[in-house]
Amino acid sequence: MDQPQTQTQEPNKKLTFEDDVIKKIAGITADEVEGIVSLDGNVFTELTEKITSGEDKTKGIEVDVGEQQVAINMDATIEYGRSAQKVFDQVFTRVKSSIKEMTGLTLVDFELHINDIKTKKELADKQKEQQNS
Predict the structure, then answer these.
(1) Per-domain residue ranges of the chain
(2) What is the mean pLDDT of residues 87-95?
(3) Cα gap 83→127, rounded to integer Å
(4) Cα separation, 100 vs 107, whole angstroms
(5) pLDDT confidence of residue 121
(6) What residues contact residue 51 under an 8 Å CB cut-off, 6+ apart?
């Protein structure tokens, strides 16, 4: 004799992210890469924020977030003497991995635009200037 089959319907499920969440993941991850000075190219603003508690890890980052994929465009200042290609490769690899691990999204387009370069002396001078203000 046939037993009655109970049909359970799987609920509709959808995980979504605010753009700022993706920006923050990318920003925090990129900031950990040696050679990245700031992500918006504005060292003065970046140093001010690092001294105060108002750090914004989403500056200089634009994202396009879909249901399964994400595109990221970042502006950065790098340290003089660093290989821009190596910095780019490290940022790309780490950001791609962090985005996948934390959100499940696949990074399909990534652009890192280097808009400035600063020497260690310039960075030290700016930091001293900020601390004396």
Answers:
(1) 19-132
(2) 98
(3) 23
(4) 7
(5) 82
(6) 130, 131
Confidence of residue 42 (pLDDT cuts 50, 70, 90): low
Instruction: Give mean pLDDT, residues 100-116.
Output: 97
- Is the CATH number 3.30.70.1350 carried by domain 19-132? yes
| Tokens 């003089």 -> residue | 80
Query: Among 71, 72, 43, 74, which residue's Cα sits nearest to residue 60?
Result: 74
Name the residue type at position 22: I
The whole-number average pLDDT for the span 9-17 is 91
The candidate with the shortest Cα–Cα distance to 62, out of 49, 76, 50, is 76
- Indicate the residue type of 123: L
Written in H, E and C, the secondary structure of the chain is CCCCCCCCCCCCCCCCCCHHHHHHHHHHHHHCCCCEEECCCCHHHHHHHHHCCCCCCCCCEEEEECCCEEEEEEEEEEECCCCHHHHHHHHHHHHHHHHHHHHCCEEEEEEEEEEEEECHHHHHHHHHHHHHC
**How much is the mean pLDDT over the chain?**
86
